[in-house]
Amino acid sequence: MLDSAEVERRVVEIYGSDLLGDRGVIHVTSVWAESARRLVALRIGSETPRSETDSFVLNVARARADAIVTTGKILREEEQLTHDFQGAKGVAETFTTWRKERLGKHEPPISLVLTTGQNLDLEHPLFACGTLPMVFTSVESGERIRESAVSRGIEVVSRPTPSLRDAIAYLHDHHRAENIVIESGLSTARSLYEPPVLLNELMLSIYSGSRLPRSVKGEHFSSVPQLGLIFPLAGSTFQSDEESGRWIFRRFTR
Description:
The protein is an alpha/beta fold.
């Protein structure tokens, strides 16, 4: 089992950096390389290719986070989703130790759910995991769910026109969040790639198997050359051959 020092050694192996001093808005996502120039987002489901390295990368992103942003749609699609660390017994303790000792983060991150409030299940496991739950929604929805949410320890933030950019600004301004990790669908995250670009970093896991079940094919993401125009400081490339096939891990920064 990994210890804190081994986590850091492996982070350097994958990304060529320990990531300790980097700050900003971070998009962490997994895609399929449909062709040399076309990347397609992976939907999470029973047929989604699995990767131990991809799980490690997600844990690294969560360990770095002062806040993790997802959406009500994701909660509906992933009924067991939490923002806890993934893996076997002891993994959570290892990443918690690395987070505290090397990143200086002693409090759990905020889990912000950007939602219209429609069909939001306040008993979803995300709201009861080890993070600090928050719902970011419209004024009307906020009024409707506030009493029930607060009774469950969920903070409710209401805005006339809530958006992902607005949520990020709120986390910066009201919670001094330096590292904000985006775990949302591409339809939501795409706005951060548009001018003025709000992302500082992309942690990209690329599955390069020759075929993919239709059920896990998501939206067209981008191509590596296009990403290079947005993130001019592309880092090293790490390749991992796993049971599901070959995976490539890239980190882009700007």
